[in-house]
Design a protein that fits this description.
Elements lengths: L4 H6 L14 H9 L13 H11 L6 E3 L7 E3 L17 E6 L5 H13 L1 E4 L2 E4 L2 E5 L5 H12 L6 E4 L3 H10 L6 E5 L4 H11 L3 E3 L4 H13 L5 E6 L3 H18 L8 E4 L5 H13 L2 E6 L4 H14 L13 E4 L8 E5 L2 H14 L3 E6 L6 H6 L5 H10 L10 E4 L7 H7 L4 E4 L7 H8 L2
Helix pairs in contact: 5-6, 6-7, 10-11, 12-16, 14-15
Length: 447
Protein backbone atom coordinates (compact mmCIF):
# COMPACT_ATOMS: atom_id res chain seq x y z
CA UNK A 1 0.00 0.00 0.00
CA UNK A 2 1.31 3.46 -0.89
CA UNK A 3 2.59 5.67 1.91
CA UNK A 4 0.84 8.97 2.62
CA UNK A 5 2.70 12.15 3.45
CA UNK A 6 1.26 12.16 6.97
CA UNK A 7 2.39 8.57 7.64
CA UNK A 8 5.89 9.54 6.62
CA UNK A 9 5.83 12.82 8.55
CA UNK A 10 4.86 11.08 11.81
CA UNK A 11 8.13 9.12 11.65
CA UNK A 12 10.43 12.07 10.90
CA UNK A 13 12.39 14.07 13.51
CA UNK A 14 10.26 17.17 12.71
CA UNK A 15 13.22 19.50 13.22
CA UNK A 16 13.15 21.13 9.76
CA UNK A 17 16.93 20.85 9.69
CA UNK A 18 17.10 21.01 5.86
CA UNK A 19 19.82 18.33 5.77
CA UNK A 20 17.74 16.39 3.23
CA UNK A 21 17.86 19.38 0.85
CA UNK A 22 14.27 20.44 1.42
CA UNK A 23 13.05 23.33 3.62
CA UNK A 24 10.80 21.36 5.98
CA UNK A 25 10.11 17.85 7.17
CA UNK A 26 6.61 18.09 5.70
CA UNK A 27 8.04 18.98 2.27
CA UNK A 28 10.32 15.96 2.55
CA UNK A 29 7.39 13.73 3.56
CA UNK A 30 5.42 14.89 0.50
CA UNK A 31 8.36 14.07 -1.76
CA UNK A 32 8.64 10.59 -0.24
CA UNK A 33 4.91 10.00 -0.71
CA UNK A 34 5.27 11.12 -4.33
CA UNK A 35 8.15 8.64 -4.80
CA UNK A 36 10.58 11.46 -5.55
CA UNK A 37 12.66 10.90 -2.41
CA UNK A 38 13.62 7.80 -0.48
CA UNK A 39 12.86 7.85 3.23
CA UNK A 40 16.52 7.07 3.88
CA UNK A 41 17.46 10.45 2.37
CA UNK A 42 16.69 11.86 5.83
CA UNK A 43 20.05 11.53 7.65
CA UNK A 44 18.39 11.70 11.08
CA UNK A 45 15.82 8.96 10.56
CA UNK A 46 15.64 6.41 13.36
CA UNK A 47 16.64 2.80 12.68
CA UNK A 48 13.12 1.77 13.67
CA UNK A 49 11.56 4.00 10.99
CA UNK A 50 14.09 2.84 8.39
CA UNK A 51 13.19 -0.77 9.03
CA UNK A 52 9.47 -0.04 9.10
CA UNK A 53 9.30 1.75 5.76
CA UNK A 54 12.42 0.55 3.91
CA UNK A 55 10.66 -1.21 1.04
CA UNK A 56 7.48 0.82 0.73
CA UNK A 57 9.21 4.23 0.78
CA UNK A 58 11.75 3.54 -1.97
CA UNK A 59 10.94 5.12 -5.35
CA UNK A 60 9.65 2.49 -7.81
CA UNK A 61 12.34 3.49 -10.31
CA UNK A 62 15.82 3.92 -8.87
CA UNK A 63 17.70 7.18 -9.36
CA UNK A 64 21.00 6.50 -11.15
CA UNK A 65 23.89 8.97 -11.32
CA UNK A 66 26.52 8.61 -14.05
CA UNK A 67 29.69 10.68 -14.13
CA UNK A 68 31.11 13.12 -11.58
CA UNK A 69 28.85 15.07 -9.24
CA UNK A 70 27.61 18.41 -10.53
CA UNK A 71 26.92 19.74 -14.01
CA UNK A 72 29.01 17.09 -15.80
CA UNK A 73 27.00 14.24 -14.30
CA UNK A 74 23.85 12.69 -15.73
CA UNK A 75 20.91 11.59 -13.57
CA UNK A 76 18.31 9.11 -14.79
CA UNK A 77 15.31 7.32 -13.34
CA UNK A 78 12.98 8.16 -10.47
CA UNK A 79 10.08 8.60 -12.90
CA UNK A 80 6.59 8.28 -11.45
CA UNK A 81 4.10 8.11 -14.34
CA UNK A 82 3.53 6.26 -17.59
CA UNK A 83 2.15 9.28 -19.43
CA UNK A 84 3.29 12.90 -19.29
CA UNK A 85 -0.22 14.33 -18.89
CA UNK A 86 -0.61 12.42 -15.62
CA UNK A 87 2.02 14.65 -14.02
CA UNK A 88 5.31 15.19 -15.88
CA UNK A 89 8.51 13.37 -16.82
CA UNK A 90 11.45 14.31 -14.58
CA UNK A 91 14.79 13.18 -16.04
CA UNK A 92 15.39 14.04 -19.72
CA UNK A 93 17.18 11.33 -21.71
CA UNK A 94 20.86 11.79 -22.51
CA UNK A 95 22.18 11.47 -26.06
CA UNK A 96 25.42 9.46 -26.12
CA UNK A 97 27.44 9.79 -29.33
CA UNK A 98 29.59 6.78 -30.15
CA UNK A 99 33.38 6.94 -30.46
CA UNK A 100 34.28 3.73 -32.38
CA UNK A 101 37.24 1.66 -31.25
CA UNK A 102 38.36 1.49 -34.91
CA UNK A 103 39.37 5.16 -34.82
CA UNK A 104 42.97 6.18 -34.27
CA UNK A 105 43.79 8.05 -31.07
CA UNK A 106 43.91 11.31 -33.04
CA UNK A 107 40.54 10.68 -34.72
CA UNK A 108 38.98 9.60 -31.41
CA UNK A 109 40.15 12.87 -29.83
CA UNK A 110 38.73 14.81 -32.78
CA UNK A 111 35.43 12.96 -32.40
CA UNK A 112 35.33 13.88 -28.72
CA UNK A 113 35.93 17.53 -29.61
CA UNK A 114 32.86 17.38 -31.85
CA UNK A 115 30.86 15.98 -28.94
CA UNK A 116 32.20 18.70 -26.63
CA UNK A 117 31.12 21.34 -29.16
CA UNK A 118 27.62 19.88 -29.63
CA UNK A 119 25.91 22.51 -27.48
CA UNK A 120 23.02 24.59 -28.80
CA UNK A 121 20.58 27.20 -27.51
CA UNK A 122 16.90 26.65 -28.27
CA UNK A 123 14.02 28.68 -26.84
CA UNK A 124 16.36 30.21 -24.30
CA UNK A 125 17.56 26.84 -22.95
CA UNK A 126 20.85 25.07 -23.53
CA UNK A 127 20.56 21.65 -25.18
CA UNK A 128 23.55 19.41 -25.73
CA UNK A 129 24.98 15.96 -26.26
CA UNK A 130 25.37 14.77 -22.67
CA UNK A 131 27.43 11.58 -22.96
CA UNK A 132 30.10 9.88 -25.08
CA UNK A 133 29.88 6.14 -25.80
CA UNK A 134 33.51 4.97 -26.01
CA UNK A 135 33.91 1.58 -27.69
CA UNK A 136 36.77 -0.66 -26.53
CA UNK A 137 35.97 -3.90 -28.39
CA UNK A 138 39.04 -4.92 -30.40
CA UNK A 139 41.44 -3.04 -28.13
CA UNK A 140 43.82 -4.71 -25.72
CA UNK A 141 43.37 -4.07 -22.01
CA UNK A 142 46.25 -1.57 -22.00
CA UNK A 143 45.02 0.19 -25.14
CA UNK A 144 41.45 0.39 -23.78
CA UNK A 145 42.65 1.91 -20.52
CA UNK A 146 44.87 4.39 -22.36
CA UNK A 147 42.05 5.37 -24.74
CA UNK A 148 39.45 6.18 -22.08
CA UNK A 149 42.04 7.82 -19.81
CA UNK A 150 43.25 10.17 -22.54
CA UNK A 151 39.72 11.06 -23.63
CA UNK A 152 38.49 11.65 -20.07
CA UNK A 153 41.08 14.37 -19.54
CA UNK A 154 39.44 16.57 -22.18
CA UNK A 155 35.80 15.51 -21.97
CA UNK A 156 32.86 17.77 -21.18
CA UNK A 157 30.63 14.72 -20.73
CA UNK A 158 30.63 11.42 -18.80
CA UNK A 159 31.27 8.12 -20.60
CA UNK A 160 29.49 4.95 -21.52
CA UNK A 161 32.28 2.37 -21.90
CA UNK A 162 31.12 -0.15 -24.51
CA UNK A 163 32.69 -3.60 -24.65
CA UNK A 164 32.23 -7.31 -24.03
CA UNK A 165 35.72 -8.39 -22.99
CA UNK A 166 35.95 -8.46 -19.15
CA UNK A 167 39.72 -7.93 -19.12
CA UNK A 168 39.57 -4.84 -21.33
CA UNK A 169 36.53 -3.52 -19.44
CA UNK A 170 38.23 -3.96 -16.07
CA UNK A 171 41.26 -2.02 -17.28
CA UNK A 172 39.20 0.75 -18.86
CA UNK A 173 36.80 1.13 -15.93
CA UNK A 174 39.68 1.15 -13.48
CA UNK A 175 41.48 3.88 -15.42
CA UNK A 176 38.56 6.32 -15.07
CA UNK A 177 36.69 4.94 -12.04
CA UNK A 178 36.73 8.35 -10.37
CA UNK A 179 34.59 9.65 -13.25
CA UNK A 180 31.91 6.98 -12.62
CA UNK A 181 31.44 5.79 -16.23
CA UNK A 182 28.57 3.50 -17.17
CA UNK A 183 29.82 -0.03 -17.89
CA UNK A 184 28.01 -1.34 -21.00
CA UNK A 185 26.91 -4.01 -21.01
CA UNK A 186 26.58 -7.13 -18.89
CA UNK A 187 24.86 -10.08 -20.51
CA UNK A 188 24.10 -13.63 -19.45
CA UNK A 189 27.53 -14.67 -20.76
CA UNK A 190 29.67 -12.13 -18.89
CA UNK A 191 27.38 -11.03 -16.04
CA UNK A 192 29.47 -12.36 -13.15
CA UNK A 193 32.68 -10.71 -14.34
CA UNK A 194 30.97 -7.42 -15.16
CA UNK A 195 29.22 -7.29 -11.79
CA UNK A 196 32.59 -7.68 -10.11
CA UNK A 197 34.03 -4.83 -12.21
CA UNK A 198 31.09 -2.56 -11.33
CA UNK A 199 31.33 -3.31 -7.61
CA UNK A 200 35.11 -2.91 -7.42
CA UNK A 201 35.05 0.43 -9.28
CA UNK A 202 31.76 1.68 -7.79
CA UNK A 203 30.42 2.33 -11.28
CA UNK A 204 26.87 2.00 -12.63
CA UNK A 205 26.33 -0.91 -14.98
CA UNK A 206 24.03 -1.65 -17.93
CA UNK A 207 22.46 -5.10 -18.17
CA UNK A 208 20.87 -6.68 -21.23
CA UNK A 209 19.09 -9.96 -21.95
CA UNK A 210 16.87 -11.54 -24.60
CA UNK A 211 13.71 -11.42 -22.49
CA UNK A 212 12.35 -9.37 -19.61
CA UNK A 213 12.31 -12.49 -17.44
CA UNK A 214 16.03 -13.05 -17.98
CA UNK A 215 16.67 -9.35 -17.52
CA UNK A 216 14.94 -9.45 -14.12
CA UNK A 217 17.09 -12.45 -13.18
CA UNK A 218 20.23 -10.49 -14.08
CA UNK A 219 19.24 -7.45 -12.02
CA UNK A 220 18.45 -9.65 -9.03
CA UNK A 221 21.81 -11.37 -9.34
CA UNK A 222 23.59 -8.02 -9.66
CA UNK A 223 21.88 -6.63 -6.56
CA UNK A 224 22.78 -9.74 -4.57
CA UNK A 225 26.42 -9.19 -5.56
CA UNK A 226 26.28 -5.55 -4.44
CA UNK A 227 25.75 -3.76 -7.80
CA UNK A 228 22.77 -1.50 -7.03
CA UNK A 229 23.08 1.14 -9.77
CA UNK A 230 21.76 -0.53 -12.90
CA UNK A 231 20.46 0.49 -16.34
CA UNK A 232 18.26 -1.80 -18.44
CA UNK A 233 19.85 -2.07 -21.91
CA UNK A 234 17.85 -2.72 -25.08
CA UNK A 235 18.63 -2.87 -28.80
CA UNK A 236 16.74 0.09 -30.23
CA UNK A 237 17.17 -1.20 -33.78
CA UNK A 238 14.65 -3.95 -32.94
CA UNK A 239 12.11 -1.19 -32.68
CA UNK A 240 8.74 -2.87 -32.13
CA UNK A 241 10.04 -5.45 -29.69
CA UNK A 242 12.04 -2.90 -27.73
CA UNK A 243 9.14 -0.45 -27.42
CA UNK A 244 7.04 -3.30 -26.07
CA UNK A 245 9.72 -4.44 -23.61
CA UNK A 246 10.59 -0.97 -22.28
CA UNK A 247 6.89 -0.16 -21.85
CA UNK A 248 6.23 -3.42 -20.02
CA UNK A 249 9.27 -2.90 -17.78
CA UNK A 250 8.20 0.63 -16.87
CA UNK A 251 4.61 -0.47 -16.23
CA UNK A 252 5.80 -3.32 -14.01
CA UNK A 253 7.97 -0.93 -12.00
CA UNK A 254 5.53 1.96 -11.65
CA UNK A 255 2.18 0.20 -11.48
CA UNK A 256 3.16 -3.11 -9.87
CA UNK A 257 6.20 -1.92 -7.88
CA UNK A 258 8.21 -4.78 -9.41
CA UNK A 259 11.68 -3.95 -8.11
CA UNK A 260 13.79 -6.13 -10.47
CA UNK A 261 12.73 -3.88 -13.38
CA UNK A 262 12.68 -0.64 -11.41
CA UNK A 263 15.59 0.95 -13.26
CA UNK A 264 15.90 3.45 -16.14
CA UNK A 265 16.32 2.09 -19.68
CA UNK A 266 18.77 2.77 -22.47
CA UNK A 267 18.81 1.93 -26.18
CA UNK A 268 21.43 1.68 -28.90
CA UNK A 269 20.02 2.98 -32.19
CA UNK A 270 23.38 3.61 -33.87
CA UNK A 271 23.12 3.22 -37.65
CA UNK A 272 25.03 4.45 -40.69
CA UNK A 273 21.80 5.94 -42.11
CA UNK A 274 21.47 9.24 -40.23
CA UNK A 275 17.82 9.83 -41.17
CA UNK A 276 16.69 6.47 -39.81
CA UNK A 277 18.86 6.93 -36.75
CA UNK A 278 17.21 10.29 -36.07
CA UNK A 279 13.73 8.79 -36.40
CA UNK A 280 14.55 5.90 -34.07
CA UNK A 281 16.15 8.20 -31.50
CA UNK A 282 13.10 10.47 -31.54
CA UNK A 283 10.87 7.44 -31.08
CA UNK A 284 12.69 6.36 -27.95
CA UNK A 285 12.73 9.88 -26.55
CA UNK A 286 8.95 9.47 -26.40
CA UNK A 287 9.11 5.83 -25.32
CA UNK A 288 10.99 5.96 -22.05
CA UNK A 289 14.69 5.66 -22.96
CA UNK A 290 17.03 7.31 -20.46
CA UNK A 291 20.15 7.04 -22.65
CA UNK A 292 20.12 6.89 -26.45
CA UNK A 293 23.33 5.82 -28.22
CA UNK A 294 23.78 7.23 -31.73
CA UNK A 295 26.53 7.66 -34.33
CA UNK A 296 25.60 11.09 -35.64
CA UNK A 297 27.23 14.24 -34.33
CA UNK A 298 26.03 16.66 -37.00
CA UNK A 299 23.66 19.41 -35.86
CA UNK A 300 21.15 18.52 -38.56
CA UNK A 301 20.65 15.16 -36.84
CA UNK A 302 21.08 16.24 -33.24
CA UNK A 303 18.71 19.22 -33.15
CA UNK A 304 15.52 17.32 -34.09
CA UNK A 305 16.23 14.79 -31.32
CA UNK A 306 17.06 17.50 -28.80
CA UNK A 307 13.91 19.40 -29.75
CA UNK A 308 11.84 16.29 -29.03
CA UNK A 309 13.57 15.90 -25.65
CA UNK A 310 13.01 19.53 -24.76
CA UNK A 311 9.34 19.43 -25.75
CA UNK A 312 8.43 16.15 -24.06
CA UNK A 313 10.31 16.91 -20.84
CA UNK A 314 8.80 20.36 -20.39
CA UNK A 315 6.28 20.37 -17.54
CA UNK A 316 2.87 20.43 -19.27
CA UNK A 317 1.24 21.98 -16.20
CA UNK A 318 3.53 25.04 -16.07
CA UNK A 319 3.29 27.75 -18.76
CA UNK A 320 6.55 28.17 -20.62
CA UNK A 321 7.05 31.90 -20.34
CA UNK A 322 9.54 34.75 -20.53
CA UNK A 323 9.36 37.91 -18.46
CA UNK A 324 6.84 40.44 -19.75
CA UNK A 325 8.98 43.55 -20.41
CA UNK A 326 10.59 45.63 -23.14
CA UNK A 327 13.52 43.79 -24.75
CA UNK A 328 16.32 45.32 -26.80
CA UNK A 329 17.74 43.31 -29.70
CA UNK A 330 20.95 44.76 -31.07
CA UNK A 331 22.20 48.33 -30.62
CA UNK A 332 18.85 50.08 -30.56
CA UNK A 333 18.32 53.84 -30.83
CA UNK A 334 15.43 56.31 -31.06
CA UNK A 335 14.76 55.28 -34.67
CA UNK A 336 14.52 51.53 -34.03
CA UNK A 337 11.29 49.69 -34.82
CA UNK A 338 8.99 48.48 -32.04
CA UNK A 339 7.46 45.01 -32.33
CA UNK A 340 4.79 43.60 -30.05
CA UNK A 341 4.30 39.95 -29.02
CA UNK A 342 3.27 37.68 -26.11
CA UNK A 343 5.28 36.06 -23.32
CA UNK A 344 4.93 32.46 -24.54
CA UNK A 345 8.63 31.57 -24.65
CA UNK A 346 8.55 29.82 -28.03
CA UNK A 347 6.81 32.82 -29.57
CA UNK A 348 9.23 35.31 -28.06
CA UNK A 349 12.41 33.43 -28.94
CA UNK A 350 11.22 32.87 -32.51
CA UNK A 351 10.57 36.60 -32.87
CA UNK A 352 13.89 37.48 -31.24
CA UNK A 353 15.83 35.09 -33.48
CA UNK A 354 14.27 36.50 -36.64
CA UNK A 355 14.88 40.09 -35.54
CA UNK A 356 18.53 39.18 -34.98
CA UNK A 357 18.63 37.59 -38.42
CA UNK A 358 17.23 40.77 -39.96
CA UNK A 359 20.23 42.79 -38.67
CA UNK A 360 17.78 45.60 -37.77
CA UNK A 361 18.21 46.61 -34.10
CA UNK A 362 14.71 46.57 -32.62
CA UNK A 363 12.62 46.83 -29.48
CA UNK A 364 10.30 43.92 -28.65
CA UNK A 365 7.45 44.73 -26.26
CA UNK A 366 6.27 41.55 -24.54
CA UNK A 367 2.85 41.36 -22.85
CA UNK A 368 1.84 38.98 -20.08
CA UNK A 369 -0.63 36.53 -21.63
CA UNK A 370 -0.06 33.79 -19.02
CA UNK A 371 2.19 31.87 -21.38
CA UNK A 372 -0.17 31.77 -24.36
CA UNK A 373 0.86 32.41 -27.95
CA UNK A 374 -0.64 35.24 -29.98
CA UNK A 375 -3.68 33.44 -31.44
CA UNK A 376 -4.45 31.43 -28.30
CA UNK A 377 -4.16 34.54 -26.13
CA UNK A 378 -6.59 36.39 -28.39
CA UNK A 379 -9.03 33.47 -28.53
CA UNK A 380 -8.82 33.00 -24.75
CA UNK A 381 -9.50 36.68 -23.96
CA UNK A 382 -5.97 37.12 -22.61
CA UNK A 383 -5.03 39.76 -25.18
CA UNK A 384 -6.92 42.76 -26.56
CA UNK A 385 -6.06 46.07 -28.20
CA UNK A 386 -6.55 47.67 -24.78
CA UNK A 387 -3.97 45.27 -23.32
CA UNK A 388 -1.49 46.23 -26.04
CA UNK A 389 -1.89 49.94 -25.28
CA UNK A 390 -1.63 49.33 -21.53
CA UNK A 391 1.52 47.21 -21.92
CA UNK A 392 3.26 49.81 -24.08
CA UNK A 393 2.39 52.54 -21.57
CA UNK A 394 3.63 50.55 -18.56
CA UNK A 395 6.89 49.80 -20.32
CA UNK A 396 7.27 53.49 -21.33
CA UNK A 397 8.10 52.44 -24.87
CA UNK A 398 7.21 55.84 -26.37
CA UNK A 399 10.00 57.44 -24.37
CA UNK A 400 12.55 55.22 -26.11
CA UNK A 401 11.79 56.24 -29.71
CA UNK A 402 11.05 59.43 -31.66
CA UNK A 403 8.38 57.90 -33.90
CA UNK A 404 4.83 56.58 -33.41
CA UNK A 405 5.01 53.39 -35.43
CA UNK A 406 4.15 50.01 -33.90
CA UNK A 407 4.42 46.59 -35.55
CA UNK A 408 1.85 44.06 -34.35
CA UNK A 409 1.55 40.36 -35.29
CA UNK A 410 -0.18 39.60 -38.57
CA UNK A 411 -2.69 37.46 -36.66
CA UNK A 412 -4.14 40.58 -34.99
CA UNK A 413 -5.13 42.96 -37.81
CA UNK A 414 -8.35 43.91 -36.02
CA UNK A 415 -6.32 45.62 -33.29
CA UNK A 416 -4.94 48.32 -35.56
CA UNK A 417 -7.80 50.80 -35.59
CA UNK A 418 -8.41 50.71 -31.83
CA UNK A 419 -4.71 51.10 -31.01
CA UNK A 420 -4.42 54.10 -33.35
CA UNK A 421 -7.60 55.69 -31.95
CA UNK A 422 -6.79 55.22 -28.24
CA UNK A 423 -3.03 55.70 -27.99
CA UNK A 424 -0.09 57.74 -29.17
CA UNK A 425 0.82 54.96 -31.61
CA UNK A 426 -0.74 56.55 -34.67
CA UNK A 427 0.74 54.26 -37.32
CA UNK A 428 0.21 50.59 -36.61
CA UNK A 429 1.81 48.22 -39.12
CA UNK A 430 0.45 44.72 -39.58
CA UNK A 431 3.45 42.44 -39.45
CA UNK A 432 3.81 38.91 -40.86
CA UNK A 433 1.75 36.05 -39.43
CA UNK A 434 4.86 33.92 -38.97
CA UNK A 435 8.10 35.04 -37.36
CA UNK A 436 10.08 33.81 -40.36
CA UNK A 437 8.67 36.73 -42.35
CA UNK A 438 10.11 39.39 -40.02
CA UNK A 439 13.47 39.96 -41.83
CA UNK A 440 11.77 40.56 -45.18
CA UNK A 441 9.08 42.70 -43.56
CA UNK A 442 11.61 44.96 -41.86
CA UNK A 443 13.71 45.23 -45.00
CA UNK A 444 10.69 46.34 -47.02
CA UNK A 445 8.83 48.46 -44.45
CA UNK A 446 11.41 50.03 -42.18
CA UNK A 447 13.74 52.62 -43.58
Amino acid sequence: MALTAMEVYKNLPKTNCKDCGLPTCMAFAMQVAAKQKALTDCPHLSDEAKEKFAESSAPPMKLIHIGPEGEKGVELGQETVMFRHEEKFYKPPALAVKIPSSLSDEDAAARLNQINDAVFTRVGDEVAVRMAAVEIDGLSADAAAARVKALSENSRVPFVIMGQDPEAMAAAAGAVAAHKPLIYKATEENAEAFVKIAVENKCPRAVGAETLEKLADLTNMAKEQGAEDLILAFDGRKTVRTIRDITMARRAALNKNFRPLGFPAMVDVSLDASTKETVLAGTFVAKYAGIIIINGVDGAELLPIMTAIQNIYTDPQVPNTVEAKLYEVGEVNENSPVLFTTNFSLTYFCVEAEVERSKVPSYISVADTEGLGVLNAYAGDKLSAEDVVKTLAEQKVAEKVNHHKLIIPGLLPSFRAEIEDTSEWKEVLIGPENATGIPTFLAENWK
